[in-house]
Amino acid sequence: YRYFLFPPFHVENLMGQFHDRMDADMEIRGFSPHTRRAYLRAMHDLVRHFMCPPDRLTPEEIRQYQIHLTRGREVSPGTFNQIVAGIRFFYRVTLRKNWLLDRVPYQKKPRPLPEILSPEKVGALLSSLPNLKHRAILMTVYSAGLRASEVVRLKVTDVDSERRTLRIEQGKGRKDRYVMLSPRLLETLREYWRQDRPSLWLFPGQPATKPLDRVSVHRILKRAQRFAGIPGRIYTHLLRHCFATHLLEHGVYIGVIQHLLGHARLSTTQRYAQVSTRVLRETPSPLDLLPGDEIPAPAAE
C-alpha cells in the first residue's frame, strides 16, 4: 500500500524538509561531515524500506527494521550501531520523540584484539616500497600512530623540525595534539620534500590543492604487503595498533601512549596491554609464586 502511495523515485521527497533540518541539527552540534553523511544515509535507507515519511513511523516499525538489518541484511555490529545512532539522533533531536532511547537499542559489539605485527614485519613493509612518497606516508602513520584521516590532512607547516614534533590539527573528536617527530622520519620527509616540493598538503592528492584520499593510503599499504610477502589481513589502522603496542613493550608509560594516540579514556589505551608480549612475559603466573622449588608429581597408580 505504501509502495503505491510513495513510489521509489519519491524517496527524497519522503524525507522532505526533515533532511535539511536533521543536517542543520548535526551541524549545530559540530558533527563531522562524515558522520552527517552516515546519519542522513541511515534515515534515507529507513524511509526507502517502508516508503513512508519518517514522522509517521512507529516504534514497532523501527524495531522490525532493526530485525531486518540483523537477519535480512546481516550487517556487522559496527554498521548496525551506526545506523541506530543516526535513527536515534533523528527521532530524539530533530523530532523530539521521548520514546526513542528505550525502544531502539544498540547491539552489543565484540571487541576482538588486533593481531600485532612484529617490528621486523613492520620494517619489511616500510622498506618494500620503492616510491618515496608512499614510503613516507606509511612511515608517518607508524612512527606517530596516526589514523589514515589524520595523515592525509597533514600540512607542510605541521612538521616542526626544531621541536621535533608533528602537529595533528582537528583529529578525531575535533581535538588538536602534538606527537613526536622521529629523526629517521624527518630525514625521509626532507628527502621527499626535495623531490616533490609539496606546498600546502604534506601528501597532496590529485589535484595538488586537495589532500590525498584515505582510500589511497589503504591501497599503498596493500601494495607494500604484496611486495613484502606478508600474509594475513593488514589494514592502515593496524599500524596505529603496532605503534602503541611496540611503545608499551619498550616501557613507555601508558598515559603517554594515551596522549599520543589522542584517546579520551585510558581504558581505550589499556587494551594494548592485552596484546603486548613483553607485558605477558614479565607478568608471573601464580603457579610460579607458590612456595617450594617444585610441585611433586602425582603418584603412579
Describe this structure in words.
- The protein is mostly helical.
- Helix content is 54%, strand content 3%.
- The chain is built from 16 helices and 3 strands.
- It has a 3-stranded antiparallel β-sheet.
- Helix 3 (17-28) crosses helix 6, helix 8 crosses helix 12 and helix 9 packs antiparallel against helix 11 (183-196).
- The longest helix is centred in the N-terminal third of the chain and has 18 residues, at 33-50.
- The termini are far apart.
Describe this structure in a few short sentences.
This protein is mainly alpha-helical and 301 residues long.
Residue-averaged pLDDT: 86
Radius of gyration: 25 Å
Q: What is the N-to-C succession of helices and strands?
A: HHHHHHHHHHEEEHHHHHH
Please tell me what the overall shape is. globular
The main pleated sheet reads as: 3 strands, antiparallel
Strand content: under 5%
Number-wise, the strands total: 3
Beginning-to-end CA distance, first to last residue? 78 Å
Structural class: mainly alpha
- Please give the order of strands in the largest beta sheet: 1-2-3
Low-confidence stretches: 1-9
Q: Quickly count the helices.
A: 16
Percent of residues in helices comes to 40-55%
List the helices and strands and how they pair.
Blueprint (H helix, E strand, L loop, with lengths): L1 H4 L5 H5 L1 H12 L4 H18 L8 H14 L4 H18 L5 H4 L15 H9 L4 H13 L3 H4 L7 E2 L4 E4 L8 E4 L2 H14 L17 H15 L7 H14 L4 H8 L4 H5 L6 H6 L19
Helix pairs in contact: 3-6, 4-6, 8-12, 9-11, 9-13
